UniProtKB/TrEMBL annotation:
Family the UniProt entry places it in: Belongs to the 'phage' integrase family.
Protein name: Tyrosine-type recombinase/integrase
Source species of the chain: Pararhodobacter zhoushanensis
Positions of the Tyr recombinase domain: 134-317
InterPro entries: DNA_brk_join_enz, Integrase-like_cat_sf, Integrase_catalytic, Tyrosine_recombinase_XerCD
Top-rank taxon: Bacteria
Taxonomic path: Bacteria, Pseudomonadati, Pseudomonadota, Alphaproteobacteria, Rhodobacterales
DNA-binding recorded as keyword: yes
Keywords, ordered alphabetically: DNA integration, DNA recombination, DNA-binding
Length: 326
């Protein structure tokens, strides 16, 4: 039976057939996978309420991993899987891809345990693979100057760069930032897709004393972003009012950086640079949490600890110079 009321016409009537086909196309196809197989387990976790609660971007990433698991191992019985099988799958991948796959395996197994299909998680004892953190390298003042010299205000490359540089947000959040998120107090407030934490960035609000010297950076950012999308809904709308994708924004920054002679720096490196700058300027850990949208002190303290260690080395060297001069 169909879910909608079909027209009161003979079953051979063209309008009745068209309505039937249209309604039938709305009915989800039943799974043909065998219960107890990985294919069935992957399909089931994709419908789980806990999976639906994850961010849109994370779900899309996990679905890509689920598709590969189902394609490569769909007929395997979940009860036959052992840690050695998971390790063998991960061994074929580079560290970044391998860690994504490991997260997908764990989502599948967690759902299987929830459904009482498994008693334990075969991936539980497998550690995350060490990744190359090049994409986290912070931009230097020289990098910023070189980029600005190559890309003038009015270009998309410059507008996208300045928004990321000032806000310190992730590319997945930058593409969704809207002018309406700037409150009457001049603070740009948005909820992050990855962590669901709120971030607060002073857009036109008075800057705190430790950030007073950044007024020029902020004015440049506002000018550059306005030049890209002066009347758009989002701050980084592409031509024709189209929204940018996070991947497209990331690729644009990387390619534009290379064109400016900047090697190995990415969009995420701008976030690292901004949050590091807060720590170097004397901003408190709470300021890093607010600007970066961190939920815990531990996440933000990474920046202050790194800066404090550097200061300890510099102070020790200065003290030695004082002794020599004495």
């Amino acid at each position: 039976m169909t879910r909608a009321l079909l027209p009161d016409l003979p079953e051979t009537h063209p309008d009745f057939i068209a309505a039937w086909v249209a309604e039938d196309s709305q009915t989800p196809a039943r799974s043909k996978s065998v219960i107890g197989t990985l294919a069935h387990a992957v399909e089931d976790v994709g419908r789980a309420r806990t999976f639906s609660a994850l961010s849109e971007g994370y779900r899309a990433m996990m679905r890509r991993e689920f598709d590969v698991i189902r394609s490569d191992y769909g007929t395997v019985k979940i009860t036959t899987l052992r840690p050695k099988h998971i390790r063998a799958d991960l061994a074929k991948l580079d560290p970044i891809k391998g860690n994504k796959r490991l997260r997908a395996w764990r989502l599948v197994f967690a759902n299987c345990i929830e459904r009482a299909w498994l008693d334990s998680d075969p991936s539980a004892g497998i550690k995350k693979i060490a990744e190359n953190t090049t994409n986290r390298a912070a931009w230097t003042d020289e990098d910023v100057a070189a980029y600005r010299a190559r890309w003038p205000i009015g270009t998309s490359a410059r507008g996208c760069f300045e928004l990321l540089w000032w806000t310190g947000c992730r590319d997945s959040d930058a593409v969704k930032l809207a002018w309406s998120q700037i409150g009457p107090d001049g603070v740009l407030t948005f909820r992050q897709e990855k962590t669901k934490g709120l971030a607060y960035v002073p857009w036109t609000a008075p800057l705190p004393s430790w950030a007073a010297s950044w007024a020029g950076d902020r004015a440049t950012a506002i000018e550059a972003v306005r030049a890209v999308a002066p009347g758009g809904f989002t701050m980084l709308e592409a031509h024709g009012g189209r929204s940018r994708s996070a991947k497209g924004l990331s690729n644009l920054i990387s390619a534009s950086a290379r064109a400016a002679g900047i090697i190995g720096k990415t969009a995420h490196g701008l976030r690292v640079a901004r949050l590091t700058a807060i720590a170097e300027s004397g901003g408190p850990t709470q300021a890093i949490m607010s600007w970066g949208g961190h939920k815990t002190l531990k996440e933000a303290e990474h920046y202050t600890l790194t800066v404090n260690r550097k200061r300890q080395v510099v102070r020790a060297e200065q003290e030695q110079n004082d002794v020599k001069q004495a």
